[in-house]
Hints:
The chain is mostly helical. The protein has helices spanning 3-24, 29-32, 38-49, 56-70, 76-90, 92-97, 100-125, 137-159. α1 (3-24) runs antiparallel to α3 (38-49), α4 runs antiparallel to α5 (76-90) and α5 (76-90) runs antiparallel to α7 (100-125).
Amino acid sequence: MSAHIANGRLVVWLTLFIGMMFQIMPLPTMVEAWRPDWLLMVLVYWAMALPHRYSILTAWILGVLLDVLLGATLGIRSLALSLVIYIVVLLCQRLRNYPRWQQSLVIAGLICIYHALIFWVQFVVVGAAPFDFSMFLPAISSLFIWWWVFWILRNMRRRYKVR
Length: 163
């Protein structure tokens, strides 16, 4: 394996690690409900940019790690992340050609699907998951942050020649 390929993979895994850290870092209670889904946005970017390399298996592994870090029921987030990334991989050619504002709307919709799946699985498996519309607040904050996440990751991909 050449150093060029290894550096590209290192950059991707470093961004995924940073996304994971942003996802679990503590926030004040006032803004906790508005926390953007950092890991999901980073995963969506890499699944759009390199669907042959970072897709469902990557999402499943990171979902299991996120469940372990959050102390949640094992497999809930891995299922939700995998299904959302599956949708992204199916639509990656279209998503790449959408303007950023339209991509933001799609990302918000995908985050709503992600949170609805988590709620549904918790409701079915655990049985005591109360429904609250505040679970969709991260979709609103991610809607506005996607522009910067996309711009930063695209520039990193170009600078480090990630392929």
